[in-house]
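Section 5: illustrative case.
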């Protein structure tokens, strides 16, 4: 099974940064906290449709996001695949997506995940176990990322987007290990890892809001 293209993800990063800076005013804080090399998992809150492209564009390294298969429609399918993104079926245990995501980490790449599963309040209140599984299985550090955009004025395009030309803050947090160091991959260990992750991500989001005044 071939891995998603690292070169494609770098092209996607360049497209993303051009598009995001063209339509909004990103302010990026703490990007240096993402390890310069080796595997890493970006755990991103999800309240706007631009969260993925925004992080993909401003991240210092090419990122392979797990994206719901429903987004891979029409011409978007070959485009998203071409820029190294991963299609995942959220309704079932998608073994192909899991294998390819673990392959990204095994090759020392960056995997992007929305641990809340779907776009919502973006407050990390409801986490799925997928992030814990990838973190514990791979041993890769988790880097929390808070995307904070203005929702005061609904966009004319869609309520799922921040107003055009508004400031969007992207705040990277300190990397942390989700596991307890034992290497256990039992259901109990994953539950404990999920709790540990939720505490870290919620704390990062609170700090990011204080830092940005959002």
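Designed sequence:
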């Amino acid at each position: 099974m071939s891995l998603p293209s690292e070169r494609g993800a770098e092209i996607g990063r360049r497209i993303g940064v051009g598009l995001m800076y063209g339509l909004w005013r990103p302010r990026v804080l703490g990007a240096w906290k993402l390890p310069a090399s080796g595997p890493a998992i970006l755990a991103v809150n999800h309240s706007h449709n631009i969260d993925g492209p925004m992080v993909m564009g401003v991240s210092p390294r090419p990122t392979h996001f797990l994206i719901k298969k429903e987004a891979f429609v029409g011409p978007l399918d070959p485009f998203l695949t071409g820029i190294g993104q991963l299609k995942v079926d959220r309704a079932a245990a998608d073994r192909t997506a899991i294998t390819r995501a673990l392959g990204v980490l095994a090759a020392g790449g960056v995997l992007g995940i929305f641990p809340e599963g779907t776009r919502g309040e973006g407050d990390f209140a409801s986490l799925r176990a997928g992030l814990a599984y990838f973190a514990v299985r791979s041993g890769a550090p988790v880097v929390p990322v808070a995307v904070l955009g203005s929702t005061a004025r609904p966009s004319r395009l869609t309520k799922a987007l921040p107003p055009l030309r508004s400031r969007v803050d992207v705040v990277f947090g300190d990397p942390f290990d989700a596991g307890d160091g034992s290497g256990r991959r039992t259901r109990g260990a994953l539950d404990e890892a999920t709790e540990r992750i939720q505490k870290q991500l919620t704390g990062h989001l609170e700090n990011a809001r204080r830092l940005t005044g959002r």
